[in-house]
Amino acid sequence: MRFFTATVLGLLVPSLAAASNLSSATQLAVPADFKPPQVFKNTNLVRNTNLEKGYVRETINVVVENIDKQSQSDYYIPFPVDVFDRVGGFEVRDKKSTDEGRFEVDITEPVSSSGTQYFVVHLAEPLAPKAQITLGISYSVLKSLTPRPAVIQQNEKQYLTYSFSAYVPSAYQTVTQKTKLKFPSTDVPDFTETSGLKTGADPERKGATYTYGPYETAKVAPGTEQPITVRYQFTNPVITASLLERDLEVSHWGGNLATEERYWVRNNASELANQFSRVEWTFASYQKAPTSAVREIAYPLLPGSVDPYFIDDIGNVSTSRYRPGNGKTAANLELKPRYPIFGGWNYSFKVGWNNDLSQFLRKVAGGDSYILRVPFLQGPKMNEGLQYERVVIRVILPEGAHNVRYETVEGANSNGLPGANQINASLSSFKTYMDTLGRTTLTLEVDSLTDEARNAELLVTYDHTLMDTLRKPLTIFGGLLTVFVATWFIGSIDTTIKKR
Ligand SMILES: *[C@@H]1O[C@H](CO)[C@@H](O)[C@H](O)[C@H]1NC(C)=O
Ligand SMILES: *[C@@H]1O[C@H](CO)[C@@H](O)[C@H](O)[C@H]1NC(C)=O
Ligand SMILES: *[C@@H]1O[C@H](CO)[C@@H](O)[C@H](O)[C@H]1NC(C)=O
Ligand SMILES: *[C@@H]1O[C@H](CO)[C@@H](O)[C@H](O)[C@H]1NC(C)=O
Ligand SMILES: *[C@@H]1O[C@H](CO)[C@@H](O)[C@H](O)[C@H]1NC(C)=O
């Protein structure tokens, strides 16, 4: 476990409680003509591309062999510079022992000569010459699907296109490889058919799964492209949050965890050819016909969530419904925007609710330390998925909280988050009424996430002493005392005009 530490000391010395950085994303410097050393060979590579959501999800299993004379531990994975920033939740594991967690990953600066940027995977143990390891690489690529036609009628089906290379981009020679595409349905009107890359039909089609390859590519130079474009039906919204701000406010006094989320959302679906027709919409809704517009946003909440609200730019949205869970079952917030959100339309709103803090906070026995365990991301849960260009999470801790550290919880599978070194973390203080030091606030910034991170958890530990607890009442008491003493003093001054 790696903790990112920074200490906000100065319990009584406010000037020391200033912000200090936990960690921020850094890029490895590389020369302008950088090429990864050719120390590995991919003996077999299988890429699974999932197109069932509004973003692309890839998992690659690759058998890697060390062809160098020395042990090697840095494996490079290239992306074109313009794609690199849209790669989300990137992680790599040893496929044979996934429960040992992800490998550490760094990112390089863009390499200007090749227009490439690399993820550098640091294997947990150097791979000996001639030895092999199977890497499981997974990530999402945001904003890579384009609606075609770009403009449709209100009740028409929607089609998306996706372009990629049949030869998987790699820094190393690849002996055999194939790509399996999973479409949302069998309605795939257009797809590239290759010729001369392999014997037999390419792609091979089976229901909603199309397979390009296997190809024998031992003699193909790494980086060679074989462009493929597919067009398939996706009559669903393509929801993109350009920004999500998520605040979690911890109150020891109130025993409360208050959550507020502010969304700036856009539907990246086909735009409407004509003006929106309410009559047609009502009819289609009545028939529950599929649509590329956002009709409703399903937002599950944890059991025990109370006082939910849903406010958009105009005000309180009363068309939403809240079904509180009972006891152990999840609660559900059904958000109905004022109007359906069609392709190209924006919508911004905020939602919030409260929870009993004891569900999330634990005091470490015999100390002044606390452990807060909260969802990293919550957000809507919908079949078509949701992509976040940028997420800013603020954990607002009680006044005086110090020695703040955080980590994300890792399981045997991907939690949808990038490595810790791609999350910017910083501490600051947030002042509200009657605060003397301001509340210690941990801010985490992540780019390119998807709803896959919905199950990720965040652990925040901090110290908070009795003095910290009493600071606010003492401040208030001190304030009252001052007023009282002043009043008493003024009152006791003899202001009567005495006769001399
Ligand atoms: C924190 O990081 C920012 C840039 O991300 C930098 O400007 C600032 O000086 C850093 N602060 C400290 C205390 O290191
Ligand atoms: C989707 O919408 C965003 C705005 O949030 C825009 O920047 C982006 O280019 C759009 N993506 C596509 C594929 O149309
Ligand atoms: C907002 O709407 C909800 C649902 O109709 C209602 O229960 C609540 O009282 C409203 N809140 C305000 C502040 O108007
Ligand atoms: C929608 O939001 C994006 C930023 O997310 C902005 O660039 C665009 O101008 C907005 N479009 C409209 C129609 O307001
Ligand atoms: C993190 O901080 C660095 C340096 O300040 C900045 O370049 C980068 O865009 C930030 N990343 C995120 C996810 O906010």
What's this entry about, in short?
The protein is mostly beta strands and 500 residues long. It has helices spanning 81-84, 278-286, 466-492; strands at 4-5, 21-23, 27-28, 40-50, 56-66, 72-80, 87-94, 104-108, 116-127, 132-141, 146-147, 151-152, 159-165, 173-182, 190-191, 204-206, 209-216, 227-233, 239-251, 256-267, 271-272, 297-301, 306-312, 321-323, 331-335, 346-356, 361-363, 369-375, 387-399, 402-408, 424-430, 439-450, 457-463. It has 2 domains: 12-23 and 237-474, Immunoglobulin-like; 40-233, Sandwich (Immunoglobulin-like), CATH 2.60.40.1730.
Ions, cofactors and other ligands present here are: 2-acetamido-2-deoxy-beta-D-glucopyranose
Radius of gyration: 28 Å
Tally of helical segments: 3
Strand content: over 45%
> Briefly, what CATH class of the largest domain?
Mainly Beta
Mean pLDDT: 88
Low-confidence stretches: 1-20
The total count of strands amounts to 33
Largest sheet: 8 strands, mixed
Oligomer: single chain
Structural topology:
Blueprint (H helix, E strand, L loop, with lengths): L3 E2 L15 E3 L3 E2 L11 E11 L5 E11 L5 E9 H4 L2 E8 L9 E5 L7 E12 L4 E10 L4 E2 L3 E2 L6 E7 L7 E10 L7 E2 L12 E3 L2 E8 L10 E7 L5 E13 L4 E12 L3 E2 L5 H9 L10 E5 L4 E7 L8 E3 L7 E5 L10 E11 L4 E3 L5 E7 L11 E13 L2 E7 L15 E7 L8 E12 L6 E7 L2 H27 L8
Parallel strand pairs: 3-8, 4-14, 12-21, 19-29
Antiparallel strand pairs: 1-30, 2-31, 4-5, 5-10, 6-9, 7-10, 8-9, 11-13, 13-18, 14-17, 15-18, 16-17, 19-20, 20-26, 22-25, 23-26, 24-25, 27-28, 28-33, 29-32, 30-33, 31-32
Bound molecules: 2-acetamido-2-deoxy-beta-D-glucopyranose (5 copies).
